[in-house]
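User: I'm curious whether this sequence folds into something compact or stays loose and floppy. Could you predict its structure so I can see for myself?
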Amino acid sequence: MTQFPIESLNLQMLNVGFAKHNGDWNWKNVVSPFTRFFYVTEGDAKLVFSDKTVTLKPHHMYIVPPYIQHSYECQGHFSLYYLHVYERVKSESNVFEFYTLPTEVKAEPIDALIFENFCKAHPEAKLPESNPQTYDNKSHFTNYVQRYNNFPLWRKMRLRGAMLLLFSRFMEGAVSKMWTNDERMRRVLSYIHDNLYSEMNLDKLAEVACVTKHYLIRLFDRELGMSPIQYINKKKIEKSQLLLFTENMPVKEVAFLMGFRDMSYFIRLFKHFVGVTPRAYKVQAM
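Assistant: Here's the prediction. I'll summarize afterward.
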């Protein structure tokens, strides 16, 4: 697999702030289409994933990738900085598709200053409350995105540089993902991620992999436990979630942008992967 193109890591800030808790940071089954960074200043809490539980400690940073379901547990005094960012929808590649990042890193002194300066410079980006079930379902997201888009170039450059510095702490310990040891699968997976906004069919994928369609299906089932079309649809629906969260776009336009021409098919797929229809998802986000 080729190295991740760093120039395509186009980060945008959604929220930043500082929060103090006293046994009230207990939220279950949180999942969002953006990346969360935490910098703990005092106390301890737990970050619970399906396969592990991480104890949050002072002067350490933590990252939660997008689309990963997780929970928070806190029994006492706990304070932290938080930062929510996402990769622009038009970024063809997603860094989490290329690397497995450590959940926890020891912070450097400058990291606390970055968070502190973020909060001072952008007090309007603070969350209205700590309950993800509430702030993930607000129309604030389109306002946050618009606010960022209206920043002057120098401010965007300064923000992006600081966010990349925080990201680099985790990239230092990242492990490159080997999607598969099969060169044919690597070629077709790279093609899928580079063309996610286009319509794709088995004939073209088989051509890229230099195998028959039937053999390609067997390769995907063996390596990923799903068919090529199921994999493509999963990735397209993830991008659709991000669009519905961050852009003021009608559902039909989102479907068209992601290469779907059959709206009923898009709606069925979205509900299969997300649990609700795209229209219901958009209403929740408003």
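Summary: The first helix runs from residue 95 to 98. The CA atoms of residues 84 and 159 lie 12 Å apart.
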